[in-house]
Design a protein that fits this description.
With 138 residues, the chain is mainly beta. The protein has one domain. The protein has one helix at residues 69-78, and strands at residues 8-12, 19-22, 28-37, 42-43, 49-50, 53-68, 84-90, 95-113, 126-137. It has a seven-stranded antiparallel beta sheet with strand order 2-1-7-8-9-6-3. The mean pLDDT is 88.
Length: 138
Amino acid sequence: MAWFTQILEIVDVNATPPEWRSLPDPHEMTVGVMDVDAESTGRNQNGKMIRDWVAQKVKLSCKWSMLTQAEMQQLLALCNRPKFTMLYLDPRTGTKQQIKAYVGDRNMGTYYYNTIPASENGAFDGIYRDVEMNFIEF
């Protein structure tokens, strides 16, 4: 039996040439499958459902219990674009699938923050907890 250790990857367009970067494995990930219907979908005057199914999209709700400063910076930098290409482990197929996605709200709590700069550029070193992000397919 094969085990996936890198269940999320995003293309780093800032690398030359662009390359896949593994995200830290989330502590929890929920894959939501959403049906997209046309505006004409609805019930007629007899109550019969008229459905114009257009597509099926995924929403990845991810949670990380703890991330280092370096992991947090990498995660935020890779998804800080209007659209990106990513791979995720799809429970429908048991394989990695590629999608174009965008990120929703990014929430993170600070667990520990060193008040002494850890580097010459004045950056502080921290540990983040309860980090949550949603990756939504275009």
